[in-house]
Amino acid sequence: MTISNGNESLLGTPLIPSRLAPLKEEPTKGSKRIILAAPRGYCAGVDRAVIAVEKALERFGAPIYVRKQIVHNIHVVRELESRGVIFVDEVAEVPTGSNIVFSAHGVSPMVVQQAADRELNAIDATCPLVTKVHREAVRFSGQDYHILLIGHEGHEEVEGTMGHAPEHTTLVNDPDEAERITPPETENLIWLSQTTLSVDETMETVRRLRERFPHLKDPPSDDICYATQNRQVAIKKIAAECDLVIVVGSPNSSNSVRLVEVALEYGARAAYRVDYASEIEQEWLVGVETIGVTSGASVPEVLVDHTLADLAEAGFTEVSEVRTAEEDLQFSLPKELRRDASGEIDAATIGGRNRR
Ligand code: SF4
Questions:
Q1: 157 is catalytic
Q2: How far apart are CA 175 and CA 170, in angstroms?
Q3: Domain layout of the chain by residue ranges
Q4: Which ligand 1 atom sits nearest the alpha carbon of residue 196?
Q5: CA of 338 to the centre of ligand 1 (A)
């Protein structure tokens, strides 16, 4: 299903690797069916970030530099590279005076300053829901709180958030680490989190933190974003019915990896993550009657379509969708792109859709 509001990314399909031989039909006892989880795929923040890069290409021409992967999906990155986008790890790699886009995962103030020092034209595609966490970090550190940030070490979002309050933040990777951290002694402790974590695991981390620090304060609202939560709720709903769950998403996509874990926790007999349908192994399908399919928040729907097509060749032709939420959140473009070359304001808003 494609929902269009005229703002589509032009992400195409030629870079999708094709399978050399169709998946073989494997013998099973009953019917072979697919349950497609919904919501799945693109969230509003990813949609906005990809469109921001496309608008920057239109407006300024190639090359456009992007710090880190604009979103954590290899297909999206390769597609944009083929159109003149250069992905870099650090601002220092970008020639002075160039155009640079900051990824949906956000950056620390230090990175913003580095870009200014190099006189770069910076376009900030940080997801507004990540910016909200940045603001919380600034606000609470300013009120002399110490922040226990639940998140994964080395993830770009965590680096960006910690960079907003480096002296006031302790990272907590998982429930076990909640037992070991040694924050400064203070009554002013608050927890915040990365936006793409497992809801259940995060609550367990908070429970264990609160056992040690009973005065620990909750954030004013959820930091795990609506898209992460909705995709987890959908996979929880179907997991127990599935002999196999296939999550389309890249290995560095936190929310995609969490979907595999959640599927297994909630009763799927097996669960795998693939970037492309061509990675599905024949042996995964042996004896399987019901396959659940979902995709991470940075995955264009075309990759799910290819997965369904390959599975149809293996006899999984019956497809039904189980939807647990409707999503209609929309964001406006980054402010640096809201005015076009003639000075007109582009008031378009961008929502997460199952984009091609
Ligand atoms: S997964 Fe959530 S926080 Fe990340 S870009 Fe999407 S909406 Fe924003």
A1: yes
A2: 14
A3: 45-127, 129-212
A4: 1
A5: 20
The CA 110 to ligand 1 mean position distance, Å, reads 22
Residue in 54, 79, 157, 159 annotated catalytic: 157
Alpha helical stretches, state H, 12-155: 44-60, 74-82, 109-117, 128-142
pTM over 0.70: yes
Which CATH entry fits the domain spanning 45-127: 3.20.20.70, 3.40.50.11270, 3.40.50.300, 3.30.70.890? 3.40.50.11270
Å from CA of 47 to ligand 1 middle: 9
Q: CATH fold of 129-212, please?
A: Cobalt-precorrin-4 Transmethylase; domain 1 (3.40.1010)
Angle at which helix 226-239 crosses helix 254-265, to 10 degrees, equals: 30
Strand order in the sheet with 64-67: 85-88, 64-67, 99-102, 121-124
Instruction: Give the model confidence (pLDDT) of 23-44 as tens digits.
Output: 776 666 668 999 999 999 999 9
